[in-house]
Amino acid sequence: QGKFTLLRDTRTDGSFLVHHFLSFYLRAGCKVCFVALLQSFSHYNIVAQKLGVSLTAAKERGQLVFFEGLKSCLDLLFGEEEEQSEQPSPLQFISESTSDLKALFDFVRMSLTPSGSDSWKGPMLLVDDLSVLLSLGTTPVAVLDFIHYCRVVVCSQLKGNIVVLVHSNEDSEDEENELVVNSLCHHSDLILWVEGLATGFCKDVHGEIKIIKRLSLELTGEQDHVQIYQYKIQDKNVTFFARGLSAAVL
Known about the structure:
By secondary structure, this protein is an alpha/beta fold. The protein has helices spanning 15-27, 41-50, 55-60, 69-78, 102-112, 131-135, 140-157, 175-187; strands spanning 4-10, 31-36, 64-68, 123-128, 161-167, 190-195, 207-213, 225-233, 238-241. The protein has a single domain (4-79, 86-192), classed as Rossmann fold. It has eight helices and nine strands. Strands 3-2-4-5-1-6-7-8-9 form a nine-stranded mixed sheet, with helices on both faces. A hairpin with a 4-residue loop joins β8 and β9. α7 runs parallel beside α8 (175-187). The longest helix has 18 residues, at 140-157. The model has no long low-confidence stretch (mean pLDDT 89).
């Protein structure tokens, strides 16, 4: 409880981790607020069904609060005034001169604050993918402020968990994105860093995952604990193995 997990991908797609955490927390009976900025609801729902979870059913019983960023962007940019609801859009900053994410934070806070009738085990915020907010025009400081306030409410006050995906490419010239990624790395309790193979594409090994447990954050004088595995994504699950020990190699 109260942990911040960073999913980081470089030269590959780390979205399989997002699907894992989404289905994992829903099966565990947690209240989930999913800020989906990268794909549509139907995309996540199809993958979740393969993993044995129905997002539609979770929404109907109030366990899942799903924010579809793609649809919200289109409504803000091309929607007619009459269609705008009384509640401001969480991505209100797109149509305003300011770039603060207060509306998005308010949406998360209201979604996860328990009401009297809630019987869920604990709140959980999932964001896919934080880099999209920068592409939409907000600033790195606004993104980091948003995450900071979410951590205070979700992790500290509500004793819940946060899982965030960011794309990173150390060779890119996108300094704003790298600033956000590096800042989040310093604050994370756990980092799952997925990278494509340096040698290029391989049919039997899809990439490498570095699991970094931030023991140094606990001020016990211990070094961070790092484990490195390679993985292969299959239709309904992912297999992990030590480097060079793929079944295809052996």
